[in-house]
Design a protein that fits this description.
- The protein has twelve helices and three strands.
- By secondary structure, it is mainly α.
- It has a domain of 191 residues.
- Strands 1-2-3 form a three-stranded antiparallel sheet.
- The N and C termini lie far apart (91 Å).
């Protein structure tokens, strides 16, 4: 221990770190100068990473809370979700207005997608594949799948059957149709060449779809049914009303279905719940009604006209199969 009156010894000046460094002693060195080179090299990256993680955590928490609110909202209104009265009620319009406001805020957030069209794919594809590879780890393995039978052949609505019960029986098929239609027309999936699970497990496709839909990997697994045993199966052929598919997109708690609808049909789902068109389940196709003149005469009777068109499409297809002796759908009217 140094005695109280003993003069304090000066520390020797530190040698420069390199031949080009300026020689400074502790006395004339500014506070923090000893680490200023290290801080300059690491602080920006560290700060940026921390800020990015904090932003992701906040977005994840916000997304979780919004999802819980949506689920609560749809559970509250579930008994009347399929009625025309509910579809024109202030409740659904207020909900959709809030959802559009959320979309607007999300779009104002700086993003690096889609890439600059002038930028060659080789410049951004590796990063997207790496991103998709990381996300692909969340795809459930075969042992953790939930048993689910493939959607049955599309059935006609029985006379007097309520629309709610009819949609309840077919809703899984409708959601699979929306997902498959998106894959076919927005990602150029060709079922004949690539299997559904193979396509959805591709790292580049995962990254591209997640970026395009601005969704999480949990959303990806949900909307494409990757947690079920029938995830690699196709829908049975059949026709269905376009407006019922729009209603299914509208009443699902996950807004990604409505986002997909806007991307593939260029309209809001709420604006399609009375559109007189016909959908074919597989291959996913949108077809016009066969009697547009009758629709003009019977305004407000679009449901009847749509079902008449569905029966006629089925009759024509059955005749084509019988005349050709096979179930090969080579008629250009049904091509997609």
């Amino acid at each position: 221990m140094r005695k109280r009156n003993q003069p304090k010894k000066k520390k020797p000046a530190r040698l420069p770190l390199s031949g080009n460094s300026a020689t400074k002693t502790d006395e004339n060195r500014q506070p923090g100068a000893a680490n200023e080179g290290l801080e300059a090299a690491t602080t920006p990256q560290t700060a940026e990473k921390k800020a990015g993680n904090a932003e992701e955590d906040a977005q994840r928490q916000n997304s979780k809370e919004l999802h819980q609110e949506r689920v609560a909202f749809f559970n509250q209104h579930y008994p009347s979700l399929f009625s025309d009265d509910w579809l024109s009620s202030p409740a659904i319009y207020k909900f959709l207005e809030q959802e559009r406001a959320e979309d607007l805020i999300r779009k104002q957030t700086p993003r690096n997608w889609p890439p600059d069209p002038l930028l060659p794919e080789s410049e951004w594809r590796p990063e997207l594949e790496s991103f998709g590879k990381t996300l692909s780890k969340k795809i459930p393995g075969p042992k953790s799948l939930i048993p689910r039978s493939s959607p049955p052949i599309f059935e006609k609505r029985a006379p007097g059957e309520k629309q709610a019960g009819f949609l309840e029986r077919h809703k899984d098929g409708y959601y699979t149709f929306i997902a498959n239609y998106f894959l076919t027309y927005a990602t150029e999936w060709e079922p004949i060449q690539r299997g559904r699970l193979e396509w959805l497990s591709n790292h580049f496709k995962i990254g591209r779809i997640v970026k395009t839909l601005e969704c999480t990997m949990d959303d990806y697994v949900e909307i494409f049914g990757l947690k079920f045993t029938d995830r690699d199966k196709y829908l049975n052929p059949g026709y269905m009303p376009f407006y019922l598919a729009a209603r299914c997109a509208l009443i699902h708690p996950n807004p990604v279905y409505r986002r997909m609808w806007r991307l593939i049909f260029r309209k809001e789902a709420i604006d399609c719940v009375h559109v007189a068109k016909v959908l074919r389940w597989d291959p996913p196709t949108v077809k016009k009604i066969l009697e547009p003149g009758r629709l003009e005469k019977k305004k407000g009777k679009y449901e009847e006209i749509v079902w008449r068109s569905i029966r006629e499409y089925e009759r024509r297809e059955e005749n084509d199969i019988l005349s050709s002796g096979s179930d090969d759908d080579s008629n250009p009217d049904y091509a997609y």
